Amino acid sequence: MSGTAVFALFCVSIAVKGLNRGRDDFFHILETAAEAQIFSGRTLWRDKTMEYKVDDTELNASAFIAFVNQIWPGDYDIEKTRMALEKTINITVHDKKVLIGCLRILSDGYYFGTITELLVLPAYQKQGVGSRLLQLAKENTQTMLYFGAQPGAEQFYEKNGCKKSIQSYMIEKNKFV
After folding, report:
1. Of these four, 37, 63, 131, 150, which has the most CB atoms within 10 Å of its CB?
2. CA separation for the pair 120, 76 (Å, rounded)
3. How far is CA 124 from CA 51, 66, 93, 108, 167, in A?
4. What is the pTM of this model?
5. pLDDT per residue as tens digits for the range 105-158
6. 50: nearest Cα among 104, 106, 121
7. Percent of residues, the chain, with pLDDT higher than 70
8. pLDDT of the residue at 66
9. Phi, psi (5° rounding) for residue 59?
10. How open is the CA angle 10-14-18, to the nearest 5 degrees?
């Protein structure tokens, strides 16, 4: 039996047990069962037509650039983008196979981790997509995560349990050279 079939039977088994424990426990059990998929590198969560993936190693530079250009238009280099994506943990969400959200984490795996960006297409914002990506980031990193917030986004992060931390500074470089 395939791993997907085993997981499906596992979910059905847990769902039946959940029905006997009440509605809230049922959804918690289903979410826990879905999160078990994180460690196998498979699809983590499906919501209607949306599919979330943790450590999406199939994310390619051209798809990422097309996605980013819808949010931050720019002249991005495909090879430099490919190298950047290889260095980060990429948590993605696709709707009908179209990339609609991405959270990237850069980490040394022990001392430090940073969210390089959390991007969701405007048509999908305020629907829980960014919150779910952030939750998956929290659940799948071994370090504290540091990041900056765009002005106006502070309330989103605070609503999702993030605490205001040290002020950040930057050293500017022309990143598109």
Report:
1. 37
2. 18
3. 13, 16, 11, 31, 29
4. 0.70
5. 999 999 999 999 999 999 999 999 999 999 999 999 888 888 888 888 888 888
6. 121
7. 71
8. 97
9. -65, 120
10. 170
Mean per-residue pLDDT, 49-60:
93
Structure tokens at 45: 């969560």
Find where tokens 């983590």 sit.
44
d(CA 57, CA 48): 23
Q: Where are the alpha helices (DSSP H) in the chain?
A: 3-19, 23-35, 61-69, 78-86, 129-139, 154-159
CA-to-CA distance for 116 and 88, rounded, in angstroms? 9
What is the mean predicted confidence (pLDDT) over 67-91?
A: 96
SS3 121: coil
Encode pLDDT of 101-118 as tens digits: 999 999 999 999 999 999
